[in-house]
């Protein structure tokens, strides 16, 4: 014993390079990081009299300036027979030219300088963005302003957009994931809700330029807009730039009323039989909207459930352990009026039943039991440790601030986020989330080379199986009972 | 080298998380060095020349570091010079498989009892490789399931990524391409030593666990990217048709039968051959200072032993294509087409002129193909140009397009060719060339804001050319492009005899029924 200890010490003396404090730790947990102290810069904010809010941060890294105007409003407000209107308006604001410049001239001028201006509208909000070198700022900002305030909506460009939109609609049936997602949304939201994509060949064909102008007048207004700016300029320069272009911008000060969702989903398995090598599955039901419950708790839960890389239950059970999928995800996705609990994956046709059963089992477990303290700790540490990436440059900081504000997140959202995550324990997390997991209420869409009759044989009689037809209009369902022997 | 992102991607990526996967696989920027314009201020290449540091560790491993001070985060990448191009028919997909396996842990990470685990892993390998006297049929399946269960009990293939996530990692991922495999992650800077520990550990003693399950995962990935995706199928067929000899012909994700035949022990040979310090590069971009981190890098990565012997080189030479090649892909979808023309790669200067060719042909709404074929003549719904499959061996200039309803793929092909023929006959106006150069320059400048993108650009260049600053020389050539250069490369390469044309066709309904 003693002998060994002495020779060990000798070894140390003779070979100073092997001094213990220099050796690689046995495990990575033995490495304790220094404290990360980082306070993201706070954007300078001001508001014009017309209601336009501006958020600005200097960014001296590059001789460039960029900005995004966020506008509340979107396809959720499309009239049903004109579904596609918001999308058309968003695209055409940029593509349809501005006063004094034909669409082609606008394109050519931007392409020549390497500057970019883009615009689009989604479901709930739209954006108009620009990016350019400092030297081109004055001219590009002027063009940006025209795209926002005075788009020309040239008819040739609009007709081109219509043709391409129709082509896109035609090609929906080429993509199993698109069909699965659209079918799922149709089942959830129903035929008439603006919270899903209802655009069809006829609704796109019915659009008129007057419709776009009206949309523009109603939704591209200062009162519901936030401009997020960053770049190589001072706050004073930013103020003067914005004043010059937007101080006389006016528009109605309407408070937008987003439609509610009151729907009871018909649970069951919905099968769209198509000749693909892999079945695309989307399943779920409604969940809280973003103003209900705790966003940070949901984010932590989502990491555990199906959005947390390899750590998530879904990844581990479906992909790692069973090899049933390459792509699998799941989570609680909040929206303005309502949220969705949604799970999705792609698996070989012959494994559809196994995959669904494995997933339903995991959802049941999460509903019944709180997660383990280790599980929660992993997810909480991941959420907290990666939080800094939301603030990775001034552009990201102002964009985040603008979006959180536009969508009515509480003022102290970022300030209280990490504390809320730290305060979670398995019991409180379970309490928050268990009512949002209702496997028996799920609509399960399957697009693949599987027949409804086949699936009906596997699922218990409590789970109806429907056969779907996917057309651009809607879905036609018929119930296939096991006894029917189809 | 400098090519553009497209739906048809040359990189088969590891993850396809809808919400986590990096949204923008950054374009290699197309930039010119502004030789004479003082008004435009500092430019990206100057910033890089001033800021990039190169380190070489005691074992020959090179590291490139570029500091972006400010936010305490960094992007760390490992670049290995192995990919699809090093594979052979019959064993395609093996580099990509190795990439997947690199996340399963090591002898330390994910291992509860490595001695026992190794015994079981070896038995599983022997069982799966169907050696003489091994079990067959149901008995084999039963033993396999048993072994996998036992192995799952004494190992944890998720520990590697779990440890990373706990430290705030973002974008933990990897990609395999023709000429390289790369591993990336972003972390807060105070976790730099942790990164060194994790990356050096998996380079030193990886364990390829859960291999047979992961083979199934890769087959699902293949179904998603190729079998059920017209674009993926077109691209795979293009390579298989345009190349007859060179391994650029083979799919990086692998033919399905090849993937099914892969064995775990085959990965070991691949790893030992290519994953060596003189065949790898580390690239770091973020709030990281080269001088401060050098000792830590040496402490961890310096442990990787130098390899002996030569690294196998790709010796196949693709013979010149002398007549047009065509192929058809049966797919029940709206038609689309892809065309590929053989072209050289850097250090052939022509490769750099192609950057400007892409710029004038397809970059921006006023680009030639967009303006003429989409907007003015209503022939194409979408059209893009790109280059694939790799950058170290002669590649393809690619045009991919979807016709509008009622226009045949043949007609669209001919209209595209007519435009390319025009470019070959008459030089474009200097103005167009100058504007394309400016877009390239602005693109490179904007790219400086992405630590991930910068890390990628630097790591790849250092790996390919032995010196990241080759990028500067490449962009000097881009900047020097003249209208005559564009005309010349169009005439030389964009000829029908040098072209491979692949299109999708729908199966007639009757044939579809029969197939069922």
How are the elements arranged and paired?
The complex is a heterodimer of chains A (486) and B (516).
Chain A (H helix, E strand, L loop, with lengths): L1 H13 L29 E4 L5 E6 L5 E9 L12 H11 L7 H11 L2 E6 L3 E9 L3 H13 L5 H16 L5 H14 L11 H5 L3 H11 L5 E7 L3 H12 L21 E6 L4 E10 L7 H13 L5 H9 L6 E6 L5 E10 L3 H17 L4 H13 L8 H13 L6 H10 L3 H8 L9 E6 L3 H7 L6 E6 L4 E6 L6
Parallel strand pairs in A: 2-6, 7-11, 7-12
Antiparallel strand pairs in A: 1-2, 3-5, 3-6, 4-5, 8-10, 8-11, 9-10, 12-13
Chain B lengths: L11 E2 L30 H8 E5 L5 E6 L5 E8 L13 H8 L12 H15 L8 H18 L4 H8 L3 E7 L4 E8 L3 H13 L6 H17 L2 H13 L13 H6 L2 H11 L5 E7 L3 H12 L23 E6 L6 E7 L6 H13 L5 H9 L3 E9 L6 E9 L5 H17 L4 H18 L3 H15 L4 H10 L3 H11 L5 E7 L3 H7 L1
Parallel strand pairs in B: 3-7, 8-12
Antiparallel strand pairs in B: 1-5, 2-3, 4-6, 4-7, 5-6, 9-11, 9-12, 10-11
Helix pairs in contact in B: 2-10, 3-4, 6-11, 12-15, 12-17, 14-18
Describe this structure in words.
The complex is a heterodimer of chains A (486) and B (516). Chain A is α+β, with helices and mostly antiparallel strands. Helices cover 40% and strands 19% of the residues of chain A. In chain A, the strands form 2 sheets. A 7-stranded mixed sheet of chain A has the order 9-10-8-11-7-12-13, sandwiched between helices. In chain A, strands 1-2-6-3-5-4 form a 6-stranded mixed sheet, sandwiched between helices. In chain A, α2 packs across α5, α10 crosses α13 and α11 packs antiparallel against α12. The longest helix of chain A has 17 residues. The radius of gyration of chain A is 27 Å and the shape is globular. Chain B is an alpha+beta fold and 516 residues long. In chain B, 44% of the residues lie in helices and 16% in strands. The two termini of chain B are 44 Å apart. Chain B has 19 helices and 12 strands.
């Amino acid at each position: 014993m003693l002998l060994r200890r002495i020779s060990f010490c000798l070894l140390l003396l003779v070979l100073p390079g092997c001094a213990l404090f220099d050796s690689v730790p046995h495990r990575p947990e033995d490495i304790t990081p220094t404290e990360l102290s980082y306070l993201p810069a706070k954007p300078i904010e001001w508001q014009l009299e017309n209601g336009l809010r501006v958020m600005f941060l200097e960014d001296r890294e590059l001789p460039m300036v960029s900005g995004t105007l966020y506008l509340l409003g979107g396809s959720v407000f499309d009239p049903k027979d004109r579904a596609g209107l918001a999308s058309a308006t968003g695209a055409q604001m940029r593509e349809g030219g501005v006063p004094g410049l034909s669409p082609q001239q606008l394109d050519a001028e931007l392409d020549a300088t390497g500057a970019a201006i883009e615009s689009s509208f989604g479901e709930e909000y739209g954006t108009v963005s620009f990016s350019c070198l400092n030297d081109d700022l004055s001219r590009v900002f002027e063009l940006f302003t025209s795209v926002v305030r005075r788009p020309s909506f040239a008819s040739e460009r609009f007709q081109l957009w219509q043709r391409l939109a129709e082509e896109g609609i035609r090609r929906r049936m080429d993509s199993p994931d698109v069909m699965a997602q659209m079918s799922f949304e149709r089942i959830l939201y129903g035929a008439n809700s603006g919270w899903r994509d209802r655009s069809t060949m006829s609704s796109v064909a019915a659009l008129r330029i007057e419709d776009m102008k009206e949309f523009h007048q109603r939704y591209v207004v200062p009162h519901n807009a936030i401009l997020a700016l960053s770049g190589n300029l001072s706050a004073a320069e930013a103020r003067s730039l914005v004043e010059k272009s937007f101080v006389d911008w006016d528009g109605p000060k309407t408070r937008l009323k987003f439609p509610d969702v009151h729907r009871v989903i018909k649970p069951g398995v919905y099968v769209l039989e198509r000749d693909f090598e892999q079945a695309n599955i989307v399943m779920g039901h409604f969940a809280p909207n973003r103003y209900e419950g705790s966003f940070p708790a949901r984010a932590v839960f989502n990491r555990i459930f199906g959005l947390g890389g390899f750590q998530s239950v879904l990844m581990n059970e479906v992909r790692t352990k069973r090899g049933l999928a390459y792509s699998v995800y799941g989570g609680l996705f909040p929206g303005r009026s309502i949220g969705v609990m949604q799970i999705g994956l792609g698996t070989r046709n012959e494994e559809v039943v196994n995959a669904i059963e494995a997933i339903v089992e995991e959802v049941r477990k999460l509903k019944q039991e709180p997660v383990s303290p280790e599980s929660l700790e992993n997810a909480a540490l991941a959420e907290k440790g990666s939080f800094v990436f939301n603030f990775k440059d001034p552009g990201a900081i102002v964009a985040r601030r603008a979006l959180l504000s536009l969508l009515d997140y509480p003022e102290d959202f970022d300030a209280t986020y990490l504390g809320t995550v730290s305060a979670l324990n398995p019991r409180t997390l379970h309490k928050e989330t268990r009512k949002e997991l209702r496997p028996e209420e799920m609509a399960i869409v399957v697009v693949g080379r599987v027949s409804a009759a086949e699936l009906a044989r596997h699922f218990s009689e409590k789970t109806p199986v429907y056969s779907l037809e996917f057309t651009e209009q809607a879905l036609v369902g018929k119930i296939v009972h096991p006894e029917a022997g189809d | 080298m400098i090519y553009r992102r497209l739906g048809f991607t040359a990189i088969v990526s590891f993850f396809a998380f809808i919400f986590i996967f990096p949204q923008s696989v950054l374009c290699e920027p197309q930039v010119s060095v502004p030789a004479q314009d003082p008004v435009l201020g500092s430019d990206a290449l100057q910033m890089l020349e001033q800021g990039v540091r190169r380190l070489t560790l005691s074992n020959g491993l090179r590291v490139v570091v570029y500091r972006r001070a400010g936010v305490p985060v960094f992007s760390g990448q490992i670049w290995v010079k192995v990919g699809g191009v090093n594979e052979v028919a019959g064993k395609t997909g093996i580099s990509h498989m190795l990439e997947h396996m690199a996340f399963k842990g090591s002898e330390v990470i994910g291992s509860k009892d490595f001695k026992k685990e190794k015994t079981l892993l070896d038995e599983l390998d022997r069982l799966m490789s169907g050696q003489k006297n091994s079990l067959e049929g149901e008995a084999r399946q039963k033993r396999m399931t048993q072994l996998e269960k036992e192995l799952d009990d004494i190992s944890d293939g998720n520990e590697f990524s779990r440890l990373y996530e706990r430290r705030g990692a973002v974008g933990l991922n990897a990609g395999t391409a023709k000429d390289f495999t790369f591993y990336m992650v972003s972390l807060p800077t105070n976790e730099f030593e942790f990164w060194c520990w994790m990356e050096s550990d998996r380079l030193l003693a990886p364990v390829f666990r859960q291999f047979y399950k992961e083979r199934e995962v890769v087959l699902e990935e293949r179904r998603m990217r190729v079998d059920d995706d017209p674009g993926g199928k077109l691209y795979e067929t293009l390579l298989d048709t345009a190349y007859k000899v060179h391994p650029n012909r083979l799919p990086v994700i692998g033919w399905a039968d090849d993937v099914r035949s892969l064995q775990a022990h085959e990965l070991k040979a691949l790893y030992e051959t290519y994953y060596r310090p003189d065949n790898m590069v580390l690239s770091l971009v973020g709030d990281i200072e080269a001088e401060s981190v050098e000792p830590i890098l040496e402490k961890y990565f310096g442990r990787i032993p130098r390899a002996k012997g030569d690294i196998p080189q790709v010796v196949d030479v693709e013979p010149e294509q002398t007549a047009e090649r065509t192929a058809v892909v049966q797919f029940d979808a709206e038609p689309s087409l892809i065309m590929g023309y053989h072209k050289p790669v850097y250090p052939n200067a022509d490769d750099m002129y192609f950057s400007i060719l892409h710029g004038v042909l397809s970059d921006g709404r006023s680009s030639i193909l967009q303006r003429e074929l989409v907007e003015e003549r209503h022939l194409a719904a979408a059209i893009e140009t790109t280059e694939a499959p790799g950058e170290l061996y002669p590649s393809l200039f690619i045009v991919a397009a979807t016709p509008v309803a009622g226009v045949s793929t043949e007609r669209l092909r001919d209209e595209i060719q007519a435009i390319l023929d025009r470019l070959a006959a008459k030089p474009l106006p200097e103005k167009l060339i100058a504007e394309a150069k400016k877009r390239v320059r602005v693109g490179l400048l904007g790219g400086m804001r992405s630590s991930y993108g910068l890390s990628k650009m630097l790591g790849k260049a250092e790996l390919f050319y032995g010196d990241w600053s080759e990028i500067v020389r490449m962009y000097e050539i881009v900047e020097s492009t003249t209208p005559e250069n564009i005309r010349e490369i169009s005439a030389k390469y964009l000829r029908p005899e040098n072209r491979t044309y692949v299109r999708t066709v729908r199966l007639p309904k009757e044939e579809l029924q029969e197939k069922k």
